[in-house]
Queue: 4 jobs
Job 1
Amino acid sequence: MLRCLTAGESHGPSLTAVLDGIPAGLSLQAEYIDKQLARRQGGYGRGGRMNIEQDHASITSGVRGGLTTGGPVTLVLANKDWENWSRVMAPGPEADLASRTVTRPRPGHADLTGAIKYGHQDMRNVLERSSARETAARVAAGTVARRLLDELGIVLVGQVVQIGSVKAPGTALDASHQDAGKLAEAVAQSPVYCADPDAAGAMVREIDRARAEGDSLGGIFEIKVLGLPPGLGSYTQRDRTLDGRLAGALMSIQAIKGVEVGAGFSAAATRGSELHDEIFYDPGRGFYRQTNNSGGIEGGMSNGGILLLRAAMKPIPTLYKPLRSVDIKTKQPFEASVERSDTCAVPAACVVGEAVAAWELAVAVLEKFGGDTMREIKERVSLYRDYAKGF
C-alpha cells in the first residue's frame, strides 16, 4: 500500500523521492522534513560537504493547504554543488565525459563491483548513485512516514551508543514506559547524538584522534519505538515478519554491516530460562512483560512492547590514509586517498536508521489497518488497541 522510489546522483541537480499510498488528511509541512534533514547533516565528525549543502525538501505534489491529498507525494532536494558539476554531469551529449573520470576504485566502496556489473569504464557512473548522499532522499521519505506514526501515538527515538571503542553505558531491556521526550532532548543536545554526556565526550575525543591520524571510525546506533500496537507483521510467511523487514531496511543503509533486535547477539550466550520474557496479566493493563529481551518482537510480530533495534556501521572507507588498489584501465597499483571525507558518520546513520525504520513501520501499520484517510486509520487503530487490551 505504501511505495517509495528515490532518484538522483550525488552531484546531479537534485534528489527526488516519490511516495505513493500516503493517506489523505495527514498534516505535513516542509519544515517538519527539513528538521530531520538538518539532523542527518549534523553530528561531530562530518566532512566538508556538509558545509556546502543545506538540505531543504520542496513538496511538489500530493499536499495542498498543509494536508496530504491521497495522491503521490513528491519531494525534491536540490544539490547546491550542482553548479560546479553541471558540465560533467549533464544528461545530454554536451556532458564533459573526459574530465573527472574515475578509473581508480576505492576499497570498501561500490566502485569496482558496480563497474563490472554495469559495464562502466568510468566509475563515476557508480559512485554518483551509490553515494551516501542518496540517504537524504530516504530521510525525507521516512520523515513523512514518521509524521503518520506521530498521529497514531507511535514515537521513534534514536541514539548513538558506540563510536570506535567507546561505548555508552548499557540500557536495560525492560518493558516499562520510558520518557521518549527526555531521551530525544538529551540526544539533541549531544554533538554525537548520544544521551550519556560522559560517553559523548569520550566519543568526541576518539573522533579527534582518528581525524589526526587520517583514519575513520564506525560505531553502533540504536532505535527505540514506543506505542506500537501488537500484531504488526506476521508469522504466516517469512517475508512478512516485522523483524526481517526492519533488518533489511537497516542493512540497506550504506556502510551498515550488522543489525540486531532486543538482546540480539548476546542472546546466543544466554540461557533460555534467563532470556525469554515472561508474560503477565492485569485487568487494567492487559497482557504485559516485565523484561524486553525480545526487543518488542516475537514470532515476527510486534508484541506491544518497546521496539529496540541496533545497527553496526563500519568505518567510512574513503580515507585520508591511503589504501592500496588497482586502476581498472592500466591495471597498475596505486594508493587511494581523498581530499574530503567524513571521519565518523555514525550520528548521521542513526538519523537515516530512524527514517527507514519509520517507513517500514508505516507500511506495516497500513497493511494491518488499511484506510484511505487518516481519520479512518486513527479510528481503526484506537479500536484495535481497546480490543488487544481487553483480549
Job 2
Amino acid sequence: MKWEKLLTAGRFDPKNIKQQPENQFRSEPERDYDRIIFSAPFRNLQDKTQVFPLPDHDFVHTRLTHSLEVSSVGRTLGKTAGEFLLNKYPHLKDSTISAADIGAIVAAAALTHDIGNPPFGHAGETAISDFFKFHPYGQVWQRHVTAEQWADLCNFEGNAQGFRMLVAKNNGLKLSYATLAAFTKYPRPAHIFEKERKRRSQKKFGYYSDQAEDYRHLGEILGIEKAENGCYLRHPLAFLVEAADDICYSIIDLEDGCTLGLVTLEQTIELLASILKERFDAGKLETYQTQTQKLAILRAMAINQLIQETVLAFEENEEAMLKGEFDQALTEIIPSAQALEIISDLSVKKIYRSKPVLEKEAAGFQVLEGLLEVFSKALNHKFYQTDLYSGQDKSILRLLPEDFPLDGWETNVNPYPMLRVLMDFISGMTDKYALNLYRRVKGIALPGA
C-alpha cells in the first residue's frame, strides 16, 4: 500500500461521482469532524452507557464523553504521526496534505468509533445477537435468508453497524475516504471461511454482507490490499484510532472505578505510577488536596506517556503496516503494555463485573430481547403467519419509524433488508428511550405515566 493512495481526497458518495468543490475554509477531515458532531447518531451517545449505568454522578463517562476523549487523543496521535510521515515521504507535501490533516482524519474517525453501538453497552450487542440465535421469533427468519445474512443477524457488531450508518445511501454522513477507512478497524465481513487469528484486524468484523460492495469500492479508491484469506488489510491510520480507544478506556475506566469506590485510590495511584515510572513523583502528588485532583493529574500524565510510546511504535512498524506484515494492537507492543494488561485484569474483576454493571447488563438483555420480540413477532405475523396477524400486531407496527419499509415482503421475498432496518431502529435507541418503550409495549407503564 502507498500513502499517496491511502490519503486520496474525495468523499464516499457512490451516487455522486462528481464530488463537491473543495471548501477553502475547512479541510476534508475538518468537515468530517463537523458533520459527525452535528449528527443525530453522535448526539444520541450522550444517553448511551459506556461502562456504568447512567448515574446521578456527572463525573462518570457516557459514550459521548468517551468518544470526545478518544478523538482528542487520536488527534494528537495522528498529528504526531503525520509529522513523521511528511518527513519520511516529502512527496506527500505535493498533495497539500499536512500533519494537521492526518491528525484530523484520526480525530474524526475516533469520534465515530462507537457510533454503531446499541443501548446498554456491549451487553446490548450480545442481546441482539442472542435474540436471533436462541429466541423462537428470532430463529424463525433463518430459513428466509442466506448463510452470510444469517451470520450478520446472529453476530451483531457495533463496528459493522457504525460502517452501515456512515455509508447509508440516504442518511449517511458521506465522510472522506480516508476517515471512513481509518474508522474501519476490522475490514472483513461476518461470514468468512477461516480468519487469521494472529491478525488483530480479523478479531471482529467491520461490515455486513450488504455493505461488502461499499467496502470494496472504498478499498479500490485507497489501494487497500487483501490478506491471504481474502479479508482486507487495515488502513494504517486505523491502528492509531484503535490505540486512542485502548488508551482512553484503560485509563478512564480505572479513574471512574476509583471515583465510584470500586478501586481504592492507593491501587489506582500504584497502577498509573507503573506507566509513569521515573516520572512519578509521590511527594508532588501529595501537594494536591483532593482525590479528584490527584486522579486528574495522574490521568493526564499517563495518557501523555502512552501517546508518546504509541507514536514510536507506529513509526517503527509503519513500513510493515503498508506491507500487511504488522497486524497487532499498538498498545500491546509498547513499553507500558504489561502495565495496561494489569489494569485490564483489575478492571475486569473490580469494575466490569461489579454489581451496578452486571445489573445494567441484565436489564439490557431483558429490554432489547423484549423489544425485538414484539416487533419481530408482529412482522412475522404480517408477512408469513398471516392467520396470526392480530390487532395487537398492527398497533405494535405503528410504533415503527415512518420510513420503515412495510411493503413488498411477501413470503418469496428475502426479508434481510427489512430486518436490518429493524436492527437500525433498535440499536439506534438511547438507553432511556429503549427502557421507556419496552415498558410501554409490555404494558408496564402507560404513556404519560
Job 3
Amino acid sequence: MTRITLATFVVATFLSVTSFSQTSSTAIAEDFKPSSLNQPGQEYPQVNSQGYARFRINAPKADSVKVSLGLGGRGGTRLTKGADGFWTGTTEGPMDEGFHYYNVTVDGGKFNDPGAKNYYGSVRWESGIEIPAHDQEFYALKDVPHGHVQQILFPSKSTGTSRRAFVYTPPGYEKNQSTKYPVLYLQHGWGEDETAWSNQGHANLIMDNLIAEGKTKPFIIVMTYGMTNELKWGKLREFKIDPFQTVLTEELIPYVDANFRTLSNRDNRAMAGLSMGGMETKMITLNKPETFGYYGLLSGGLYNPDDLKDEPKPKLVFISCGSKERPEGVKKAVDDLKGAGYNAVSYVSEGTGHEFQTWRRSLHELAPLLFK
C-alpha cells in the first residue's frame, strides 16, 4: 500500500524557472563558437564566452521562426530572416551554465534544430545545447580509467514485457572478478527516460573522474525508466507509485543482484532521483525502508523527521536544489533532520535552477558520501 501521496510532494520541484541568467548591460561579445553538442560539421547553434546562444535556421519560405529554450525562455528567442533565407537570432540574455533542451517553432509547427544533437526530454527527442560551465572539468572526458555503461533487458511479469535499464560499472569491474560493489539506483525526471543520466547528466564521467581522484568509493549505478511519461503535464497528482515500485524492487533489483557482482543488502543500496525521480525516490524509500540505506532528492522534494520516524534509520539523507529554486526549504529540511538525529546533508548549486547543471553538481557532491 502506498503510504504517501503527491500532496506531500513539494510543488517547487516543477517550478518553471527561467533558463536565462540576469541580463547584463555589457555588450554581447562576438566570440561565438559552435556548441559542443552540434551535429558533425554544423556551425550553428553557437555560444559565446558570456553564455549567450545564437541560432541560424534555414527556412526560406517561413513567415516566423522562434527558438524556445529550457523551462523558461521569456517567450522564446525570435529569429530574423535574412535575404539568403536563413533566420538568425541571439538570446536576449546569457543562459545558465550547462545543458539545455530547446526546440524551434516554424510557422506554428514545433521542430528540432537540424544543427544540434537530440536528447530525450519533455516526452520527446529535443535539441540540446551546452553552455560551457566554469566547473565543467568534473564531468569532462579525461585520460583516466573509464567504467562501462551497458544496456540490459530485464523480464517484468508485472508489466508483461521486458524492460530496459542502463548499468554503469566502475573501472576495473571486469578484471576484479572477486570484488562486489554497492549499487545506486538513479532516476530521471518527468519527460525524460533511462538515457538521461548518461547522455545529459554525464553520470559515468562524473564517477570515472571521482574514482580516479580517489574521492569516491567505486559503485554500480542502475538507471531505468520511472514510468512517468504516461502522465501528462498538469496531471501529476494522479501519479501512482505502485507499478514502478513493483518493477524496481521486485523485478529490477533481483535481476541486477543475480547478474552483477553486487553487495545485495540495505547498507549497500542507495536510491536517488532528480525532479519527479526524486518524488519517486521519496515514495519508494518510505514505502520500502528495508530496501535502501541511502536516500537522495535532487530538486525532488524534501524529507522531514516525521516521514522517517519509526522506520529503519537511513545512513544518509541528501537533499539538493539550485539556488534559483527554493534553497531555503532544502536547508531548513536538512537542519530539522540533523536536529532529530539523522545524518543529513544539503547542497545548493549556485546560479542554476531546475536543470541538469544542478543535478550534475548534485551527483558530484552525493557520490563521495555514499557507502561509507
Job 4
Amino acid sequence: MTSPAPAGTLAGQVPAGPLIEARGLVKRFGGFTAVDGIDVSVAAGEAFGFLGPNGAGKSSTMRMVGCVSPPSAGTLRILGLDPVHDGSAIRARLGVVPQRDTLDEELTVRENVVVYARYFGLSRAQSRAKADELLEFAQLTERADDRVEPLSGGMKRRLTIARALVNDPDILLLDEPTTGLDPQARHVLWDRLFRLKRQGVTLVLTTHYMDEAEQLCDRLVVMDGGRIAAEGSPRELIRQYSTREVLELRLADGVAGSEPARVAELLARDARRTEVLPDRVLVYTDDADAAAAEAEQRGFAVVSALTRRSTLEDVFLHLTGRTLVD
C-alpha cells in the first residue's frame, strides 16, 4: 500500500519533483490484476499519454491517479501527496474530463460552469466571472445562454473541459477526450488542449487515436496486460520499434495463397520486418523505394505500392498485436 506523504508537503504547494510518481503500482480486483507493478513519472507542464488496447490497465491507472480508486500495492504520489490519506486535497487540485460527458442538459451552457464552480467554493460573482472566462477559452461565448441538450458533440466536449478548469487545476486528466468527434471538432479540441499546455497545465490523457497521441503527447507509455510495454516520446518510440518508412504492397486478386508470404520472405532481407495481412504485405524499411523496385523486378503481382512514413500506430500494433480485445 502507499506510505504516508512526505513531511512538509503543503496544500496548494507544487512539488519540486514530478507531479505524478508511481513505483511498482498495482491494482487488483479480487484475483484479477488490472495494473501489474508499473513505474510512471510525470513532470510539471508535460503532456503525458497512456495508450493500450481495451483491458490494458489504462482506466484503472487513471482512476488511481484521480484518487477515486486506492492502489492495491506500490507507491503513488500526486502533487507530492498520498492519494489514500490526502485524496480530498489532491482532488481539489485536479481537473477531470471523463470519457462520457456528465453535463446537466437541462441547464444552460453558462449555468453548467457556474454551478460547478460553486462546488469549489467560488462566490456567485467569482463563478460568473470564471464561467465567462472559460467559455471564451472554449469558444462557447455565443452559446452561453443556450441549453446544453441541442449542442453538437464537439461543443459538449469543449464545455466539459471548460468546466474541469474552474478550479485552475495543476493537473488535467482526460479520458479519451475526442472519442466520437468528427475531424474538425477534434482539431479544435486539440488546439484548446495545446493552449492549456502552453499555459503550464499538466495534461494526462488516455486515447485510442494514435495521431492524437503524436499531436498532443510529449511522452507516453504503451500498456498491455497491465504492464508497460514501452515508454518514450512518439518520435523515440517510432525510431526504436519501427522504421523510417513502410511499404504497403497490394497484390492482385486471385494470386496463390502462398504468394503474399513468398513476397514477404524475399523482401525481408532488406527490411527490418515484414507482415502479411489479408489484403496486403507490409514492409518495414528505411528505403521503401528500393523495396518497391525489388518487388517490381521480381515480377510479383503487385496492384499498388504505397510508401508512407512510419507512425505511432505501427508501434502500437507491433507491441500489442492486431487481435481485437473486448
